[in-house]
Specification:
Layout (H helix, E strand, L loop, with lengths): L7 H5 L4 E2 L10 H14 L9 H20 L8 E4 L2 H16 L5 E5 L8 H10 L2 E5 L20 E7 L12 H10 L3 E5 L11 H4 L3 E5 L10 E5 L17 E4 L4 E3 L13 H17 L1 H19 L5 E4 L2 H4 L5 E6 L4 H10 L2 E2 L1 E3 L4 H6 L5 E5 L6 H15 L1
Helix pairs in contact: 2-8, 3-8, 4-5, 9-13
The structure holds pyridoxal-5'-phosphate.
């Protein structure tokens, strides 16, 4: 699989090696065309108008909701809420569900593997409510330090919020199913941050048992400004609207308001219409490529990178290579005596884009005792030649 020709950015900068898709992915022509088509041929708001154009765009908008529902194995499209992205979706749950359900003395469980977006909202909620924040630590390979799940999940636990795949190390959540089962046994809810998993592996929210699942459109070849929050239907009674405004209401009186059914009660105001349609195009594109094919392709690139990187003595891969070889789409590493920013700047001089820093995961950096790392991440448009170019540049840097 080499899809470069579908991505205008990569055709424009023919020599560019873009290895920062875990930050944001490039957009295929199909997505760009869908945005342009909306603005040039369909521009009207959704959900309100009674004229043909408004009805047409509403239908297209709702079709994307259906598509997302199918993609993640939701029971119904009513479980799909469009947000601004993963961060927005997590703040939604921590604020709306959290405010209603968390009280002093309750326990909120997160892990040390989290992106700040799935850590700070829970930390702030715990501080506000005088609840206890429990942070499951990680081993050097990125797996969780769990002797017994009951040490972490107790009758006081109200929610477990954890990542599906780590954005800092690339490793999969080592205890996902076990933690979901234990949480449900004590009546707690589970939020899974799917930001680095969705689009890179098949996701089925019902099989996962997630009550909430979140991801961002821009990481799966879609536009920025749109994301998805899945809220399981049986949990929705416990999630009041996060924000208030037009479109989400049924009847507004002087003293009270009644709300529309989900998902509309959760989407007040004019939504990101173009972006939702663009996300629909991105999902069609991913679907045509096949998620399994994408997964296999990026895993091969990861394996090629790891094998090559292991022969560069000054380079240390973080997170345990055995967890990354043959799976995953990103690898983080440090180079002895060269700051990660300098590594990234050097690679940039050779037309290679990688990410350097703590990757919004300072808990991971502290646990593994590094200040900043370099992260290469692969997508369907990368190929073996890209990996070779990164390896050659790293070898030159270390020579
Ligand atoms: C695992 C993970 N969670 C959350 C986020 C935040 O996503 P966004 O910035 O699109 O809201 C990211 C972004 O890198 C991520 O990788």
């Amino acid at each position: 699989m080499d899809k470069k020709q579908d991505f205008p950015m990569l055709m424009h900068y023919k020599d560019l090696v873009y290895c920062d898709s875990a930050a944001t992915a490039q957009k295929p022509q199909m997505v760009i065309d869908r945005l342009t088509h909306y603005y040039t041929h369909m521009n009207a708001s959704v959900g309100r108008g009674v004229y043909a154009l408004a009805e047409q765009v509403t239908t297209e908008y709702e079709k994307v909701r259906e598509k997302v529902a199918q993609f993640i194995g939701a029971q119904s499209s009513q479980e799909i809420i469009f947000t601004r992205g993963t961060t927005d979706g997590i703040n939604f749950v921590a604020t709306a569900w959290g405010d209603k359900n968390i009280k002093a003395g309750d326990e909120i469980v997160v892990t040390a593997l989290e992106h700040h977006s799935n850590f700070v909202p829970w930390q702030q909620l715990a501080l506000k409510k005088q609840a206890t924040l429990k942070i499951i630590p990680i081993n050097q390979d990125g797996s969780f330090v769990i002797k017994s799940v009951s040490d972490w999940i107790t009758p006081k636990t109200k929610i477990v919020a954890m990542t599906h795949v780590s954005n800092a190390l690339g490793v999969y959540n080592s205890h996902l199913k076990e933690l979901v089962s234990a949480a449900h046994l004590v009546g707690a809810r589970v939020l899974v941050d799917g930001c680095q998993a969705f689009g890179y592996q098949p996701v089925n929210v019902q099989e996962l048992g997630a009550d909430f699942y979140v991801f961002s459109g821009h990481k799966v070849y879609g536009p920025t400004g749109v994301g998805v929050l899945y809220i399981k239907k049986s949990v929705q009674f416990d999630v009041p609207p996060y924000q208030f405004g037009g479109g989400a209401v049924f009847e507004v009186k002087d003293e009270s308001t009644s709300f529309r059914e989900a998902p509309h009660c959760y989407e007040p105001g004019t939504p990101p219409i173009a972006q939702v349609l663009g996300l629909g195009a991105a999902l069609e594109y991913v679907s045509a490529c096949g998620v399994i094919n994408i997964q296999r392709h990026v895993a091969q690139l990861c394996t090629q990178f790891i094998e090559g990187a292991q022969s560069i003595k000054s380079l240390r891969i973080l997170g345990g290579v055995e967890h990354l070889t043959g799976s995953g789409h990103l690898v983080s590493f440090v180079v002895k005596d060269v700051h990660a920013h300098d590594v990234a700047a050097f690679l940039d001089t050779r037309g290679i884009c990688v990410r350097a820093g703590h990757h919004c995961a300072q808990l991971v950096a502290r646990a593994l005792n590094y200040e900043a790392s370099v992260r290469v991440s692969f997508a369907m448009y990368n190929n073996a030649h890209d990996v070779t170019r990164v390896l050659e540049a790293l070898a030159a840097l270390s020579a």
